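Record type: monomer structure entry
Structure origin: computed from sequence
Chain ID: A
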Amino acid sequence: SSGINAEYGGPADVFFNLYKIQPLQYVMMGARETRRCKKILDSVTAAAAVYPGQLIPMVLVGALGGCSGKFLQTTEESLRKGSSDLSRGEFIQISFVTKASLAIATLYTLVKSDIISLSIPHALLVCSKGVQRVSGVDP
């Protein structure tokens, strides 16, 4: 016996075991949702520079920033497989992430357009806490 644990799977195993601790899961999920809100804010800000005063493009670009590649994933899969079946598409069966991204992008667009009077850091906090509560992450 050389004293080495035969069940040790390397650094990934250590991080997996740390992630199994519930308070750490809440912190990591909260950080992920806060990052998503920040990505949406950055996307809305970029769209406001390109499309000043136009609300719909700002909301759409912000939502795309929040859901990353969910919209393109089904299209890419159908092109790769050679089928035209888009019944699993994000436009047909909208996921929670897409719905939350649309709601947050709408809020940020209204704040950016001065329709709603709210500071951006406060809006970021409201959105990240709202997403955490709705998704069941809030302890």
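Annotation 1: The chain has a mean pLDDT of 76.
Annotation 2: The first helix runs from residue 11 to 19.
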